[in-house]
Model the fold of this input.
Amino acid sequence: MRTSNRLDLSVPPELFAAQLAAMQENGYTTITLDEMVDHLEQGSALPEKPVVLTFDDGYRDNYENAFPLLVERGMTATFFVVTDFIDTQRPEYLTWDMAREMQAGGMVIESHGRNHTSLKGRDDDFLIWQALGSAETIQFELGRRPHFVTYPAVNMTSARSTFSAAQTTAPALPPSRAPHTPATISSSFAACGCAAQPRPKNCSGCSRSIGRQPSSPPSQKER
Done:
């Protein structure tokens, strides 16, 4: 959530506040990714209108702008951080002290890899270094093992050895082709003015994709 002109990737604070207010006014409740995956895999109950809010990269304005607005409204969100960018002379990114305060305030910190490098075509050793390295850093700094990763640069690869699920902004598969797995959860963008009100059905500016959410959990045979 930034004050830049990148409307495809950012939202001004006042618009984000309006989006949160609109969600609450229309009966939406924020949930965590853990709650969503428990629902997909085990059928755990969710609120009537659940929504997962996620932020990528771990920019400092997540702490300065988004975090206070979420806490004020009793809402939660997940922040995917690039671990090598934190506390390394990069003033535009979070510090671990900020991340600890956000976690204590009800936010969830997850992995966006070590350095936001594309994973396409990389060998297993590099993937393990990215996945395991970021997970161990988060656990060391925050005292909690991350459960999720969002793929950097929209490249998808296997994350099963380290994480419970993974997220991408790549388009979701149609239901007939989508596997019953949390390894490729698709997300949508809120960087558009019409997101501050009930979204029109024909609005294409708010997101690149809407993730699949089965109406019931997969059977044991389908897993």
